Amino acid sequence: MVRIETVGKYIKVVLTGEKRNVFSLEMINQLMNVSCDRDVLVTNEGPVFSSGLDLSIFLQNKDDVLEYLFKIHRFVKKILSCPGRVIAYVTGDVYGFGVEFLYFTDYVIASSENIKFSLQGINFGVFPPYTIAIGNRLFPIGYLKVMLNREFYTREALSFGIVSEIGSLSIEKLFSPPVYTQEHIKPRRWLLDVVEEAVPYLFKLAEIGTREETRERIRKFLRR
Hints:
Layout: E1 2-7, E2 10-15, E3 22-23, H1 25-32, E4 39-44, E5 48-50, E6 52-53, H2 62-81, E7 86-90, E8 93-95, H3 97-103, E9 107-110, E10 116-118, H4 129-138, H5 141-149, E11 152-153, H6 154-160, E12 165-166, H7 171-175, H8 182-185, H9 199-209, H10 212-222
Parallel strand pairs: 2-4, 3-6, 4-7, 5-8, 7-9, 8-10, 9-12
Antiparallel strand pairs: 1-2, 10-11
């Protein structure tokens, strides 16, 4: 699920899994225990950085879904509150909440130009709550329309502002930047002031996600 390593002055968090890493309840519990008093690097093993929310949770009762979604929300606020930098090094495709997680990090490096990004869980009725709630504060409306209507790849993610840089990881550059660049490497703490706007959408997601028609779509997807 998660492998945590201390490397010099930073903590390396590796999302692991044979095929697709999901932000399951177990993974979130592990991530909530990660200290971010120092800089944190989040990366992945395998072909997928994250497939996002654990869709199987929506097959449970609504109270369980709400508990899960609000644990995700506490995790988002934890990331935004970290005193150290949180940097993502993406080496695989990114789906759903995996994409949204990147909004809250300080810097995102994509290892190649052929990484796929998708918010198409919306096709199951499981919409991306943070994109819907505060996406207009992060992206022009034209970019949001693209993000919500089709898959896109690294170059577009870079132009949208989801990805900061394409290429190989340079730890020294990212964790020891010149003083004059530090403000640009840490741009998203202000989201703490607006992230609570997502709360009504978490309730709405729990409602829509536990409807029988949504559950049937999820069941069909999970049986693939």
